[in-house]
């Protein structure tokens, strides 16, 4: 059984950045191989990992769904799709990446999602660790893409709106009865070296999530993003890395 770490939260609150920091942390502890999963149709986890963007599951489904029969080698449609999907894996040295993408055809989205879930479950068996980046919003929860998670990090920036969104994520996890072992709030991009304002602390409590920690605003993250440098290469001295290391060592000590 692989251990799954998932990140969700409002748009732009640092989900993808946190995934990179989790992966950086795991690699620094020699925990590999890792399967990274980009379940955001607007995919960009490949860039922060420094991997070449592979064919997405969406791309492959667009091609295979409309492939006229008979299929090569007399394969069934399911077997053919599974065979073609093996091309969707970007292989890195210690981290492989599976990108969902978004198929073009109307009405394909739920089907693509079911294929992703099935494909993900079979691929994940080969990895001790799975790290999953999600799209902003809540659909991935109701579609149950984000289910059977060991560590679920909900990101919020240091704003009331971000924290209210985090509360909705927590409510939906409960409502849907998703299998999530441990879930935490991570506040991101907060001013470094300052406690959270009182009004934010109230909202943190109202999320019903345990605050794992705060990742401060890090100018180096912004610089890496401007230069399209992989965030997994952030130096150990970066303020975001230091905060993330302290946070993960505490809440994921057993990992
Ligand atoms: N700790 C940080 N310090 C400085 N900038 C940050 C930090 N975390 C994230 N950012 C910046 O905030 C922006 C959004 O970050 P990121 O892409 O990780 O968010 P996201 O939640 O994945 O966004 P989306 O909802 O679009 O997928 C990026 O420009 C990123 O560089
Ligand atoms: Mg993102």
Notes on the structure:
The longest helix has 17 residues, at 160-176. The chain has 255 residues and is α/β, with parallel strands linked by helices. It has 2 domains: 4-31 and 128-255, P-loop containing nucleotide triphosphate hydrolases (Rossmann fold); 44-125, no CATH class. The chain starts with a strand and ends with a helix. The protein has 10 helices and 8 strands. The site of magnesium ion has 5 residues, from α1.
Q: Can you give me a brief rundown of this structure?
A:
41% of the residues lie in helices and 20% in strands.
Note the main sheet: 8 strands, mixed
- Compute the average pLDDT: 92
Report the CATH architecture of the largest domain. 3-Layer(aba) Sandwich
Overall spatial form = globular
Share in helix = 40-55%
- How many E strands? 8
Structural class: alpha/beta
**Order of neighbouring strands in the sheet with most strands:** 3-4-2-5-1-6-7-8
Indicate the CATH class of the largest domain: Alpha Beta
| CATH domain fold name of the largest domain | Rossmann fold
Order of helices and strands: EHEHHHEEHEHEHEHEHH
- Gap between N and C termini: 13 Å
CATH superfamily membership of the largest domain, which one? P-loop containing nucleotide triphosphate hydrolases
Radius of gyration: 19 Å
Q: So how many helices?
A: 10
Overall number of domains = 2
